[in-house]
UniProtKB/TrEMBL annotation:
It comes from Plakobranchus ocellatus. SMART domains: A1pp (SM00506), SEC14 (SM00516). Residues 39-220 form the Macro domain. This is Gdap2-like protein. SUPFAM superfamilies: CRAL/TRIO domain (SSF52087), Macro domain-like (SSF52949). Belongs to the GDAP2 family.
Amino acid sequence: MEQEALGQRDDLIDPSTITRWHFTKLLEQPKEYEETDQRSPFPWRADLNAKIALWHGNISRLNVHAITHSTNEQMNDKNPISDEIMRQGGPGLVREVAEDLKVCRTGEAKLSKGHYLPARFVIHSVGPRYNIKYLTAAESALYSCYRTVLQICKETEIRVLGLGALHTLRRNYPPDKGAHIAVRTVRRFLEKFSDSVDLIIFCCNEENLESYRKILPLYFPRNSVEEEDAIKHLPKDIGNEEGEPVIKERQIRILDKPAFAALKQSSSADGLVDFEQTIDLNKEFAQSTVIDVGHHPFASMQEDPDKIKTARMLSNAAEIRQMENKRRYEKLLKQAKTEDLTDIAALHCLYRTGVDKFGRPIMVFIGKHYPAHTIDAEKALLYLIRVMDPVVENDYVVVYFHTEVTGKNQPPMAYMKMAYNYLDVRYKRNLKHFYIVHPTWWSKVATWFFTTFTASDIKGKVHNLRGVQFLYTKMGPDQIDVPSFVQEYDIKVNGARYVVPDSDTADGL
């Protein structure tokens, strides 16, 4: 009955249609390293790259041996992905989870049948809640999630796995930090048990796609260039041989025969030890611990080691991140100045016009002119940098005309996040106002989401304006080039002449 139902579906995703990781870049001959060369702890291995794939889509449609399901301890989490998996699995899956599995603790994983899902099995797991105060506990629990899932696959001979993210923003887990643990754990597992797996598909959504695209090459480099570059970008903690996070503060060494170790250190030059001294030392050790804690924080009564480690990490992270962003932006700026971008300029979707009432330059973006689904996204970003880099040295404002924008003009949220993170800090610091003219209900929701979760530092600078006359209270009509179709639309929805209330004329200025 279940197989009949599956056979009638024409929207299943077969693993053979997903490009494997080693085919996503041109192949080359392996580099011959000399003994003095620095090697990545995760060297380029084509055989392991052939075992993984990166895919963006609905995990419940994957026709694989098993998929993962990130849920809560009661296994009744309510979110779009969980709802879709349970709905597609049907009442049989709902009943098995509720009656047989019942609960799953954080860091654990449990196996169920797939029922009406294309996947034969579902591996349910509960990722940890992220709290900077309990950083090491969250990292260890997340590692346990991924490692347990992979162990279940090995033990039950699941050879093709759809591995969705078990770290989620619902539990406040940063996508980048979680992706490091996920990918690293898979890498270490494949190094030891690659024969037990045919394919592991990292299944992504808008929330984490860019994180995986950025982090996968660090642990699964596709050529010698990526392998060398990974050395500079890998985190300090790359885990142990299993991929498990290492907590140095909690590594306590148990000495073999500590009394003799102490006697060895206090012995005379000729190697002999005074008998009375031996007795005294034995008494001393009999009354003390046999654990050599060395410089461990417990020995000096330091406070929470996790807190100390976190403070140290935070003090360096901001500086490192700023340096990396600056280096990346300078590389893009150099490319933007040399690349042929005439085709992007011809769209006339981004240009500089006059100044506002405070003398600040105005940048205009025409949403209707931006072909989001056909444009070369990389070249579009380069053109934006070329045009705006001279402007953002000082205070400036942006006017975005959302007039008559449709779905084909709206770039994916993941691309907007990527572009925003690539821009130099000057763009955010010197932006004074971002005006959205003719917003829709959907654009307001998308703007709120973007400025809440990605661009919180400009949230208070974004203003929705119902019409062109509202815009003219911020800048003179002679200072901004408004397209004719925007003027016509404005007259159509607002009338030929309308008065702007006084309460709207001083919007945040």
